[in-house]
Design a protein that fits this description.
The complex is a heterodimer. By secondary structure, chain A is an alpha+beta fold. In chain A, 34% of the residues lie in helices and 19% in strands. In chain A, helix 1 runs antiparallel to helix 18 (590-626), helix 9 (332-340) runs antiparallel to helix 11 and helix 15 (501-512) runs antiparallel to helix 16. In chain B, helix 3 (32-65) runs antiparallel to helix 15, helix 8 (167-181) packs across helix 10 (218-256) and helix 9 (184-197) packs across helix 10. The chains are: A alpha+beta, B mainly alpha.
C-alpha cells in the first residue's frame, strides 16, 4: 500500500512533465506534417515544365509498367523498348507522317541481285555518349552477339533467325548475308549497342544494364538514372547526329504509377505532363479530363486489332490433330454466319464508347500502306437473316429457337475470354444475345491466363488481339503452318493454329518480294484470305486515348502526323519533338497558386488550433472527472 | 486472477526465472528456479523446432502451390511479342521448365536451402536481390503504419473501454469500425483526390504517388520521403487501427470487473493509476498476440495500398510476379512472407511466458 501510494505520488509529480512531452510531441508531429505538406508548391502545374531551380526543363510521363530490363538484349515490355528506342539508334526508322522507312543509324541500303546480301551504309556522324565514334562494327557486334549467344537472343532473336553472316568491312559499311530472301531487312527494330562497352559482359541472359549510369548510347536521349518501380530519367543528348533545335526538354522522366486513376490525378495536379493509360485511358477517365483547364485529351488510331478467333482444328507440324474445337466450326458457312450476326458498330459505340474504329481487314488503318478492306460483295456485314440462311445451308435448321445439327445436338459454343479484360466480358454479353437470336448458344469461359486452353486447342471461339508493327511480317507469320507446335499442347509461335497452303504461299511470296508495292499487294491478298476464311474476325481497332498538360507541353509530334498517337510510337518522334510550354501558354494566373498557399496555411492553422482547443477541453473534462 | 499475480505480469523479465540468459550454474543451484528455467528452455526449443518444421513445409508448399496455377510463364511473358519457336524453346531451357518436375523440385529445394531462390523470369535478376530491393520500402511504409495503428488502437481501445457506454465510446468504436470496413484502395484514392490534387478550398499538399521525387539527397531526401509517406500511412492506419482498438477494448472490459481492480481502488489509488498500472498490463496480453500476428504481416506489404500510391514495395512485386507467374519470384516472396509470419508467431510464443507466467510452465 505504502509502495503504491509512493508510486501514485510519483505519478502525480511526473504528470506535468509527461503532459508537456506529449504536447511537444503532438506539436512536433503536426508541424512536421504541415512542413511536409507545404514542402512542395501547392499548385506546381505551371512550374514543373518551366525552368526548375536548376533551370532544367523536365517532361514527366506517367507509365503503368515496370521496367523488365534495360538491356536491349532482354527488354521486351513496351516501356523498356520505348526507352531503349530513345537511347540507342536502330538501323532504320519510320517516318512519323506515314510510317514509311527512313534512315536511322544507316543512311542507305541495297540488296544484291540474288536478294541474299544486304549492304548498309552506316552514318559517320553518330557518336556514343562517351565520345567514341559509333560505327558499322558496333552494329555487326550487336547482330553477331544475338546470333551466337543464346542469352543475347532473348528479346530480339527472331530478327536474326535467317541471318547467315554479319560483317563490317569498314566503319561505314555493314554487310548482312541471308539464308533466304527476307523483305523485312529495312525493319530490323534492334537497338545497336557500343561494342567497347558490351564486349566485356559475361552473361547476357542476366546482365540488366542497370548499375552504371549514365548508360552509353547514341540516341537522342541518354539514360541517367533508374530506380526500380519508381522512375527512369533521361537527358537530352546534345551530340545526337540529327542536328536541330531538338530535343528541347532537357530531361524526360518516366514515372511509375501503378494505378491509372492516381496517374490521372497526378496529371490533373501537374505532377506529370503526360498520361497514356494502360493500355489507354478508360472512357470514364477520358471524359473526366475533357474540358479540364490546361489538359488536352489526345485520341489517335490504335495499332491493335480486336477480333474473334475461331478454332480451325489444331494440329502439330507433322499433322497430328489435337484439341476439342466444335466440328461445326470447320464449315466456313457457320463461321461466316457467326460473324454476320455481330454488330461491330454497337461494339464500338457501347463497349468502347466511341473510342475505337469498326473492324474491317486484319491490319489497322493506321498502317495505310498495308490496310485492306473487303469489297462490297465480299463484306460480311451485320445481317442476322443472312446469317440464319447460311446456317440453314450448312445443315443447322432452327428447331424450337435452337440451331440443331444432323446429330440432333444443339449448336452450343464455348468462348475463351481474358478475365482481366473488361472489354471481353462486355462484348461476350452482346455476343450471347446476338447469337442467341439466331439460335446459337454461347458459354463464356473467362480465365486469367488463356494460354493453357488456347495452346491445347481446347476452345471453340476466343477473343484475340495483336499490336501491329509498321512491317506486318510478324502478325502475318503467326498464321502460317511453320508456326504450328512441334508437339501437341506445346506453346508455339502460331496464334490460332491456322495452317493453309494458299496463305502460306502468299506469305512466302511477300517475304521474298523487295518491291514495296508488290509486297503490299501480296499482304492485302493474305488479309482478304483471312477475312473470307472466317477464322479471324476483326471487330474493332481500339484507339489510343492519352492526355497531356498544355501548360507543360506546347506541341508534340503525333504519329501518323494527322490525328495520331504519342506514347509507344515507332520511333523517338514524340519525346524528341516535344516543345516546352512557356508561362503564357497556361490559362492559370500566378495568383491562384499563392491563393492556394494562403488557404492551405489558414486551414492548417485552423486544424492545429482547433485540435489544441479540443485536447485542452478534453483534458479539463477528464481532470474534472478525476476530481 | 488475483491482485498478487499482477506485479508478476508487470515486471516479469526482471527475475531470473523469466530470463533464460541468466540461467547459469548459480541459478541451477537454486532448485525450483533452475527447474523453471529448464522448462522454459525446453518450451522455447520446442517452439523453435516447430517453426523450423513449418518453414520447411512452406518451402515445399510454395513449389507446388504456384505450379497449380494453370498458366504458361513463357507464353505470358512473351505474349504479344515477336518470338520464334526457337526463342520460346530457349527461354524454357533457361528457366529449367524443360526439366521433369521432380528434377525441378530437387534443385529448387537444394538451392533454397543455400539461400538461392533462382533468377526472376521477367526481371532477369536473382530473386534475393529483387526482394532485398523492395523490402526497405515495404518496411518503411507498413512498419510506420504498424507502430501508429498499434499505438492508436491501444490508446483508443483503453479509453473507450474505460468509458464504456459513453458517447465517446460509441462514437470512437463506430468510427473505427466504419473506417475498418472501407476498402483501402478506395480510401487511398479519395485521399489522393482530396489532399494531393486538392478540392475546393483544400489545396493539394501531398504527392500523388511514389516514394520520392527523385534527385534529392541528404536531409532533403528524408523530408521528401516523409512527405510521400504521409497519405499511404494515413490510409493504412485508418483502415487498420480498429482491429487493435476492438481487441484492446474487449480485453480491458473483461478485466474491468476483476476483484484486483476493486482491491486497487479500495487502496485509494487514483482511477488513472488503476487503469494504467493494473488493468492495462493484464488486458495487453491478447493485444500483444494480435500485434505479433500483425508484425508478421508487416513484411508482406499491402498490395492494394502499394498499388494506389505506386509504392515500390513487396506487395506490388508479388502482384507482378503472380501475373506471369514468375515462379522463382513468387516462390521466394511466398517463402519470405510465410517466414515473417512464422518468426513473428514464434517470437510471440517465446516471449509470452515472460509476460504471462501461466503460459509454458
Amino acid at each position: 500500500m505504502n509502495n503504491e501510494a509512493q508510486q501514485d505520488r510519483h505519478h502525480r509529480t511526473a504528470r506535468p512533465a509527461r503532459r508537456g512531452a506529449r504536447i511537444l510531441l503532438a506539436a512536433g508531429a503536426a508541424a512536421f506534417t504541415l512542413t511536409a505538406g507545404l514542402a512542395t508548391p501547392l499548385n506546381p502545374a505551371p512550374q514543373q515544365a518551366e525552368a526548375k531551380a536548376d533551370g532544367k526543363k523536365t517532361l514527366t510521363v506517367a507509365v503503368a509498367q515496370s521496367v523488365d530490363s534495360l538491356s536491349p538484349f532482354l527488354a521486351q515490355r513496351l516501356l523498356s523498348t520505348s526507352i531503349l528506342r530513345l537511347t540507342n539508334e536502330f538501323l532504320t526508322n519510320y517516318d512519323p507522317k506515314d510510317n514509311h522507312v527512313v534512315p536511322g543509324f544507316a543512311t542507305e541500303w541495297k540488296s544484291s541481285p540474288d536478294k541474299l546480301t544486304w549492304t548498309y551504309t552506316i552514318r559517320s556522324d553518330s557518336k556514343w555518349t562517351d565520345g567514341q565514334k559509333a560505327t558499322a562494327k558496333d552494329a555487326a557486334f550487336t547482330f553477331n552477339k544475338m546470333m551466337t549467344d543464346e542469352g543475347a537472343a532473348t528479346a530480339n532473336g527472331s530478327f536474326v533467325g535467317n541471318f547467315k553472316k554479319v560483317t563490317a568491312p569498314s566503319d561505314t559499311q555493314l554487310v548482312i548475308e541471308l539464308k533466304k530472301p527476307q523483305a523485312t531487312m529495312t525493319a530490323l527494330d534492334v537497338p545497336i549497342v557500343p561494342e567497347h562497352i558490351w564486349k566485356d559482359v559475361k552473361d547476357y541472359s542476366k546482365f540488366n544494364n542497370d548499375e552504371k549510369f549514365p548508360i552509353v548510347g547514341n540516341g537522342p536521349f541518354e539514360l541517367t538514372a533508374y530506380k526500380t518501380d519508381q522512375y527512369v530519367k533521361l537527358r537530352a543528348n546534345k551530340d545526337f547526329w540529327r542536328k536541330s533545335e531538338k530535343p528541347q526538354f532537357d530531361e524526360i522522366v518516366f514515372k511509375t504509377y501503378k494505378d491509372q486513376d492516381a496517374a490521372v490525378a497526378a496529371l490533373r495536379k501537374g505532377e506529370v505532363s503526360f498520361v497514356a493509360g494502360s493500355p489507354a485511358l478508360t472512357p470514364a477517365q477520358a471524359a473526366s479530363l475533357k474540358g479540364e483547364k490546361n489538359i488536352k485529351v489526345n485520341e489517335g488510331p490504335g495499332r491493335r486489332f480486336y477480333a474473334i478467333a475461331v478454332n480451325p482444328g489444331w494440329k502439330t507440324k507433322d499433322g497430328k490433330k489435337f484439341g476439342d474445337g466444335n466440328k461445326a466450326l470447320l464449315d466456313k458457312r457457320v463461321r461466316q454466319a457467326l460473324f454476320r450476326s455481330v454488330d461491330t458498330k454497337a461494339i464500338v459505340d457501347k463497349v468502347f464508347q466511341g473510342h475505337a474504329v469498326q473492324g474491317e481487314g486484319y491490319i489497322p488503318p493506321r498502317f495505310s500502306e498495308y490496310f485492306w478492306k473487303p469489297t462490297d460483295s465480299q463484306k460480311l456485314s451485320y445481317d442476322t437473316a443472312a446469317a440464319g440462311k447460311l446456317l440453314d445451308e450448312a445443315g443447322y435448321p432452327l428447331k424450337d429457337g435452337k440451331r440443331v445439327g444432323k446429330d440432333g445436338k444443339p449448336l452450343d459454343l464455348r468462348m475463351l475470354c481474358h478475365a482481366t479484360d473488361p472489354n471481353d466480358k462486355a462484348v461476350g454479353k452482346y455476343l450471347k444475345e446476338w447469337w442467341g437470336k439466331i439460335g446459337v448458344g454461347l458459354k463464356l469461359n473467362c480465365v486469367d491466363d488463356v494460354s493453357v486452353p488456347w495452346y491445347a486447342g481446347e476452345y471453340d471461339l476466343a477473343f484475340d488481339g495483336w499490336s501491329v508493327n509498321p512491317d506486318p511480317d510478324f502478325v502475318l507469320g503467326i498464321h502460317t503452318c511453320a508456326a504450328l507446335p512441334i508437339k501437341a499442347r506445346e506453346t508455339a509461335a502460331t496464334d490460332n493454329g491456322i495452317c493453309d497452303k494458299t496463305y502460306d504461299d502468299l506469305y512466302n511470296k511477300q517475304l521474298a518480294e523487295y518491291d514495296p508495292a508488290k509486297r503490299a499487294d501480296y499482304v492485302k491478298q493474305m488479309e482478304s484470305w483471312l477475312y473470307d476464311s472466317g477464322y479471324m474476325n476483326v471487330m474493332a481497332y481500339p484507339n489510343a486515348v492519352e492526355a497531356y498538360r498544355t501548360d507543360q507541353i506546347k506541341s508534340i509530334q503525333t504519329m501518323p502526323t494527322a490525328a495520331g498517337n504519342i506514347y509507344g510510337q515507332d520511333g523517338y518522334w514524340s519525346w524528341w519533338s516535344a516543345e516546352p510550354a512557356t508561362a503564357s501558354d497556361s490559362s492559370d494566373s500566378g495568383s491562384s497558386s499563392s491563393t492556394g498557399v494562403v488557404i492551405g496555411i489558414v486551414i492548417a492553422a485552423l486544424v492545429v488550433i482547433g485540435g489544441g482547443v479540443f485536447v485542452m477541453r478534453r483534458r479539463r473534462t477528464t481532470a474534472d472527472d478525476r476530481e | 486472477m488475483t491482485a498478487d499475480s499482477t506485479p508478476a505480469l508487470v515486471q516479469p523479465a526482471d527475475g531470473p526465472d523469466g530470463d533464460p540468459a541468466s540461467a547459469g550454474p548459480s541459478s541451477a543451484a537454486r532448485g525450483p528456479r533452475a527447474r523453471n528455467t529448464k522448462a522454459y528452455v525446453q518450451y522455447a526449443a520446442a517452439k523453435i523446432a516447430g517453426a523450423v518444421v513449418s518453414l520447411f513445409a512452406v518451402l515445399v508448399t510454395s513449389f507446388f502451390l504456384f505450379r497449380l496455377i494453370p498458366s504458361d510463364p513463357v507464353k505470358q511473358m512473351t505474349g504479344g511479342k515477336r518470338v520464334s519457336a526457337e526463342q520460346l524453346e530457349n527461354l524454357r531451357h533457361q528457366f529449367g521448365l524443360d526439366q521433369p518436375m521432380w528434377k525441378q523440385f530437387t534443385s529448387y529445394i537444394g538451392d533454397a536451402l543455400t539461400g538461392d531462390f533462382g533468377t526472376s523470369y521477367q526481371f532477369h535478376t536473382p530473386v534475393i536481390d529483387k526482394i532485398a530491393d523492395a523490402l526497405p520500402a515495404t518496411l518503411l511504409l507498413t512498419g510506420t503504419a504498424y507502430v501508429l495503428y498499434s499505438a492508436l488502437g491501444i490508446w483508443l481501445g483503453t479509453r473507450t473501454a474505460w468509458r464504456n457506454g459513453s458517447r465517446s465510446d460509441r462514437f470512437n468504436t463506430a468510427f473505427a469500425l466504419t473506417l475498418y470496413s472501407v476498402p483501402s484502395f478506395w480510401l487511398g484514392l479519395l485521399l489522393i483526390i482530396v489532399f494531393s490534387v486538392g478540392i475546393g478550398p483544400i489545396p493539394g499538399m501531398f504527392p500523388t504517388g511514389g516514394l520520392e521525387s527523385g534527385g534529392e539527397t541528404g536531409f532533403a531526401y528524408v523530408i521528401d520521403v516523409a512527405h510521400h509517406l504521409v497519405l499511404p500511412v494515413i490510409t493504412l492506419v485508418a483502415v487498420g487501427y480498429a482491429q487493435t482498438l476492438l481487441v484492446m477494448r474487449s480485453s480491458l472490459l473483461d478485466e474491468m470487473g476483476s476483484d484486483y481492480l476493486t482491491t486497487a481502488r479500495a487502496k485509494g489509488l487514483r482511477d488513472d493509476v488503476v487503469r494504467r498500472k493494473h488493468a492495462v498490463p493484464n488486458a495487453m496480453l491478447p493485444t500483444f498476440t494480435l500485434m505479433f500476428v500483425n508484425l508478421g504481416h508487416v513484411v508482406a506489404g499491402q498490395i492494394l495500398v502499394e498499388t494506389v500510391f505506386s509504392w515500390p514495395g513487396l506487395g506490388g512485386l508479388f502482384y507482378s510476379a503472380l501475373s506471369v507467374p514468375d515462379l522463382p519470384l513468387v516462390q521466394g516472396l511466398f517463402f519470405v512472407f510465410a517466414t515473417a509470419v512464422i518468426l513473428a508467431n514464434t517470437l510471440a510464443d517465446i516471449l509470452y511466458p515472460l509476460l504471462d507466467p501461466r503460459v509454458g510452465r
